[in-house]
Task: inverse folding
């Protein structure tokens, strides 16, 4: 009996070893590609050099750099600043930026600028921050493809779902993403919502007890000042049917110094708070971003990421996989990957759905389930978030399913 068991174990072990070596082979191409994808951590020395250069230009100190108000006040948003900061850029390039800026506003925080290789047109940070001529030749996109104007039952509110809604509190951001879905709201100037409008929005929430989840966004929710934020969160906190509060913000990526002790002491008062941010490329994951995440987590905030799938930035499966893995290392859980919307001026960023599915196909099974967010297409005109999955269920009849595994193996599955 014992001898037989050993024999069985032997063949099982041999079988397992063969399978393990097959699995090991599967990851080799990714590991090779991975070496060529830099992260913010790997770029630390470069980033520091750029920071010194920018500080020199503004005649400022490291202490200034760590002050989010200083960062906002010194956002680079004119061709003159750009030219003076980066003499490597040609006069033509700067004129181009100025020209595009007349149609679509731009501004970049010094911090985000320090992550950027300004002379490299394919740099994923530059693509997100610096205007490009392609923005002016978009004959496909619309101003408001989500029809937010038509799902606005009260000032500042977008309601598209039964139990939750958005409050838009500002149009201001630390950096105006070139792929912004709400660029129609950016306008010429920074505007926070009027106090009277916020009060009316809160009245709407109070009057509708089925609203259990309120998402504060913008713009960037964390560009509200501490005082207003404290007030708004305490108001929401005092509404018994509001079970959770969420903040939509890109500051962990574009202005991590905003996550300071004072802000964290406010956030800590109103649990549960969920923050979804938007990292789109591993190069955005820096020591500063990690510090911001650590502080938020220490204040009891739960962190998630909503990446936007962007052509030329992260539409390659290896980059998206690396991004999600790097996010987990700083305790940010990948939540959604959004298919870029058809917003006027962003056509050059919009990938095909096929490319999106390819990205998803390379995640499930190949890496931790924690690193696999849901891929979402926003249905036009406020139809809502619609999940898109590669075909894992090939057919389903009564109690017979035909499944396709992550390795494309077809298997029959039967239920009683
Ligand atoms: C995205 C969104 C939400 C939140 O959706 P979840 O899938 O719950 O994250 C809520 N309201 C509006 C209007 C939205 O666009």
Result:
């Amino acid at each position: 009996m014992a001898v037989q068991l050993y024999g069985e174990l032997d063949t099982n072990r041999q079988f397992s070893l063969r399978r393990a070596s097959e699995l090991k082979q599967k990851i080799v191409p990714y590991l090779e590609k991975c070496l060529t994808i830099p992260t913010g951590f790997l770029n630390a020395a470069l980033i520091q050099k750029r920071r010194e250069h920018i500080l020199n230009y503004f005649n400022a100190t490291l202490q200034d750099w760590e002050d989010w108000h200083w960062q906002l006040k010194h956002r680079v948003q004119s061709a003159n600043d750009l030219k003076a900061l980066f003499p490597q850029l040609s006069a033509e390039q700067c004129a181009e930026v100025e020209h595009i800026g007349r149609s679509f506003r731009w501004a970049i925080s010094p911090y985000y600028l320090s992550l950027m290789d300004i002379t490299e047109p394919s740099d994923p940070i530059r693509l997100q921050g610096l205007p490009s001529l392609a923005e002016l030749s978009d004959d496909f996109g619309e101003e408001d493809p989500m029809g937010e104007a038509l799902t606005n039952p009260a000032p500042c509110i977008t309601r598209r779902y039964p139990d939750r809604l958005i409050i838009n509190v500002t149009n201001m951001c630390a950096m105006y993403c070139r792929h912004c879905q709400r660029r129609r709201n950016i306008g010429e100037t920074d505007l926070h919502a009027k106090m009277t409008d916020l009060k009316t929005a809160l009245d709407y929430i109070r009057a509708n007890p089925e609203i259990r989840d309120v998402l504060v966004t913008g713009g960037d929710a964390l560009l509200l000042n501490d005082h207003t934020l404290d007030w708004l969160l305490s108001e929401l906190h005092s509404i018994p049917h509001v079970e959770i509060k969420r903040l939509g913000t890109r500051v962990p990526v574009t202005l991590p110094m905003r996550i300071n002790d004072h802000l964290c002491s406010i956030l800590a008062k109103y649990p549960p708070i969920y923050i979804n941010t938007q990292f789109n490329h591993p190069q955005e994951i820096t020591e500063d971003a990690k510090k911001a995440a650590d502080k938020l987590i220490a204040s009891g905030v739960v962190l998630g990421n909503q990446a936007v799938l962007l052509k030329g930035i992260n539409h390659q499966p290896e980059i998206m996989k690396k991004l999600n893995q790097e996010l987990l290392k700083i305790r940010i859980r990948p939540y959604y990957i959004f298919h870029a919307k058809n917003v006027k001026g962003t056509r050059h960023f919009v990938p095909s759905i096929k490319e999106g599915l390819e990205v998803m196909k390379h995640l499930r099974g190949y890496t931790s389930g924690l690193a696999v967010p849901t891929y979402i297409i926003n249905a036009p005109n406020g139809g809502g978030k619609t999940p898109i999955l590669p075909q894992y269920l090939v057919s389903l009849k009564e109690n017979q399913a035909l499944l396709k595994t992550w390795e494309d193996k077809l298997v029959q599955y039967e239920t009683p």
